[in-house]
Amino acid sequence: MRCKAVGLCLALVLCVPGFGAERIHLTVDASKPGPKIDRNIFGQFAENLGHGLYEGIWVGPDSSIPNTRGIRKDVVGALKDLKVPNVRWPGGCFADQYHWRKGIGQRDKRPATVNSAWGDVIDTNAFGTDEFMDFIEQIGSTPYVSVNVGSGTPQEAGEWLEYMTAAAPTALAKERAANGHPEAYKVGFLGIGNESWDCGGAMTPDYYVSLMKVYSRFVLNMNPAQRNKDQMLKIAVGPGTPDTEWTEDVMKAWKKHTWAWDINGVSLHWYTVPNGWPPSTKSEKFGLDDYAKSLKSTLFMDEFLRKQEAVMDRYDPEKKVTLSVDEWGAWHAPLPGSNPAFLVQQNSVRDAVLASLNLNIFARHADRVRMANIAQMINVLQAMILTDKEKLVLTPTYYVFKMYVPFQDATFVPVTFDAGVYTHGSVTLPRVDAIAAKSSDGKLLLEITNLDAENPAAIDADLTGITAKSAKGEVLTGAAVDSVNTFGSPDAVVPKPAAVKVENGKLSLTVEPRSVTVVSIEQ
Ligand code: AHR
Asked: Which ranges constitute the DSSP H helices of 239-348?
């Protein structure tokens, strides 16, 4: 077309989606399936911290907020849509000071204790083991229970497991039945302590390894339904800094494990804290500097995993022991006016983008990383849900988890691409990130994150190993990197349909700036 009027031509090209966008070419090879992306990498973490449990989940049966046996109905409804595979509870640092007996039985008779891990607030113990299990059943998830290694004993932890899992009529099983649950609970995962090198007791690796063996030996799951299948997996404490001494000691011990004890996983904690501790990035009203630095810090997760995996591979080349990233996410400065011990922060487009980068890293490490838990589920750190009395808002991170649901237990498929570069100030980042997978119902899934805060990217992808017939997509972004959902404006950052074209085995779409896009391709 020859332009007669320059102004008209300019108007036309500006209306073409993706005009002027950087072109990124992907090759997706569905004929080369990789490992399963374990659904447990989409796990959550609900610690007794601030308003994570109390108010966030538990309002009590007498509350005017609609609830089922004290548990918020709106929260349960929202979480069901995420198909949450597992929930880690009761901590975190809180786990190593928790004495489970204080949280069972008639609620008005439970002792008040002090939550010295998080702000010295009074804990009514109203949300204890049976309430947690009820919550798990209501959302359709699996419990990941961390036992108290720091200030408890193997006997106390063993009895807790007996209370939860014994089917035979032992005294503890009868007590559970008297408390309303005759059927033995299934406990999917057992955490043997938490950050035992720090808040969990400031232990040396040697000292922890000795305790780990004892707990593994005596803290038993007695549920017959978990004897041969659905066995409880035991997760040992792992590192929180990139050095490998702790992992080395745990894996060295594991290599020589006997019939008497075993572990199935080693945990790893890594938060996005771009300026170091204490966290100082703002969670609302921030700019591109904070955005770029946060993404850079997030991408370090890949190197951290590689370092630990190299150690694990030496002791466990068959990859029997999983690396369980059971705390990850953005840790920003507390919201002004909030109790700093409650770790309250807003959740923005930036957090959505960095959630997808983390999930993509876990997917690329799926042969070793078979579990991860974002910190935390509700009202704490990088939450899915924020509540204020009867009000509830779903965060951008919630929507990322929702968009990734089809990736749960999907088979990893390699994607190759030249990511390009996005530079802001002194920070250089890849312009895009992408993963692909084949879902259990035969669809090819493609996720593309556009890290570039200001420019779209025009994606074209060669799809080999499948005959692509049609595709549909969803995109999550907002007006700016610091766009958030609020109680007054809950839909500022919500997924919207994305225009995707499939023709002759090629897929094309334009991904918006600072966005997360998931495409589902039918064959
Ligand atoms: O998630 C908040 C805290 O971070 C956890 O309690 C602790 O394990 C970690 O240091």
From this structure: 245-255, 288-315
Q: Does residue 271 carry a pLDDT above 80?
A: yes
Task: Of 395, 310, 414, give the one whose Cα is nearest residue 353.
Answer: 395
- Tell me the HSE value of 448 on the side-chain side, using a 13 A CA sphere: 34
Q: 50 in ligand 1 pocket by Cβ < 6 Å?
A: no
Question: Could you tell me the pTM of the whole model?
Answer: 0.95
The residue to mutate among 98, 115, 267, 269, having the most atoms of ligand 1 within 8 angstroms of its beta carbon, is 269
47, 131, 159, 195: which is the annotated catalytic residue?
Answer: 195
Give the pLDDT score at 20: 62
The SS3 call for residue 35 is coil
| pLDDT of 156 above 70 | yes
Strand order across the 444-450 sheet: 411-413, 432-438, 444-450, 515-522, 470-476, 496-498
CA of 198 to the centre of ligand 1 (A): 10
Residue 139: strand, helix, or coil? helix
Band (505; pLDDT cuts 50, 70, 90): confident
- CB of 193 shorter than 6 A to ligand 1: no
Residue of higher predicted confidence among 149 and 523: 149
Identify the pLDDT of residue 349.
Answer: 98
Using a 10 angstrom Cβ sphere, with 0-12 exposed, 13-18 middle and 19 or more buried, the burial of residue 425 is exposed
